[in-house]
Design brief:
With 257 residues, this protein is α/β, with parallel strands linked by helices. The protein contains eight helices and seven strands; from the N terminus they run H-E-H-E-H-E-H-E-H-H-E-E-H-H-E. Strands 3-2-1-4-5-7-6 form a seven-stranded mixed sheet, with helices on both faces. Helix 2 links the parallel strand 1 and strand 2. The N and C termini lie close together (9 Å).
Length: 257
């Protein structure tokens, strides 16, 4: 297996993440994109890359720290506005909300069709999504978003297949999984940690109000992750992703190890 992976690496080297022009970041909920890849987004915007966010669910059940009496329907608009503000901190103005119910209360087929349509409209070169292969992940929205993104990343260039989804084809060349246990590509993000933290904690106040214990624990996690990936990649501080280009998406099990 190691010999095959090594041979593949030299025979068909994967393009660097920064080499693309149009990027789509798919988030199961408001705030997932920023936590999973906020530093990378800020770095890519510094390179004048074209970036859009697609948020699958409305986050209506993120009520743990909401004021007493807040209803799920009240939280939808709050989280939408928080997401718009957070994206702007990272330099992103293009945010699409699909509006599916938080908690998996939807037919995944409908999410598939909705994501296909927006991929056909935005025509990204590379799609970022949560890794659906992480064995510890239990949240159905993360699993659905990752699995459907994986399916569409492969089928996006096929005109007749995308037509069956009611969508246009798109020139997707790769998928990059954030929140992955098996990153194989890294982006230097050292200068952007504070911007990432501001996007998460400065904007998503319904989830991380003043005094919320999650602020310190997630901050520590993001710092440790940045240093760990930085050491692994010799980049100082970095975010890591499991990236599959079209060569590695199909009939090549070694690419997923």
């Amino acid at each position: 297996m190691n010999l095959i992976r090594t041979a593949l690496k030299f025979a068909a080297p994967a393009a660097k993440i920064e080499s693309y022009e149009r990027y789509m970041f798919i988030g199961p909920h408001p705030d997932d994109i920023e936590i999973g890849a906020g530093g990378t987004i800020a770095h890519l915007k510094s390179l004048n890359k074209e970036i859009c966010f697609v948020i699958c669910t409305d986050g209506r059940y993120g009520l743990d720290y909401a004021p007493v009496g807040t209803r799920p329907d009240d939280l939808i608009e709050i989280r939408k506005q928080e997401s718009i503000a957070s994206a702007k901190v990272l330099g992103v103005d293009d945010v699409t909300f699909l509006g599916f119910s938080d908690g998996g209360f939807y037919d995944p087929k409908n999410l598939l069709y909705a994501l296909a349509k927006v991929i056909g409209e935005k025509k990204p070169d590379i799609i970022f999504a949560p890794d659906p292969s992480v064995t510890s992940e239990c949240h159905i929205d993360h699993l659905n978003a990752g699995r459907i993104s994986r399916q569409l990343a492969f089928f996006a260039p096929f005109k007749e297949i995308m037509k069956q989804y009611g969508a246009e084809c798109a020139p997707v060349k790769a998928i990059a999984y954030y929140m992955s246990a098996k990153p194989n590509m890294f982006v230097s993000t050292g200068p952007y940690l504070n911007k990432q933290l501001d996007a998460v904690f400065g904007c998503h106040k319904s989830q991380f109000p003043e005094g919320c214990p999650d602020v310190s624990s997630i901050t520590l996690y993001l710092k440790l992750r940045m240093y760990t990936f930085g050491i692994r990649s010799f980049k100082g501080k970095a975010e890591g992703f499991r990236v599959l280009d079209r060569t590695r998406m199909h009939c090549l099990p070694e690419a997923g190890d």
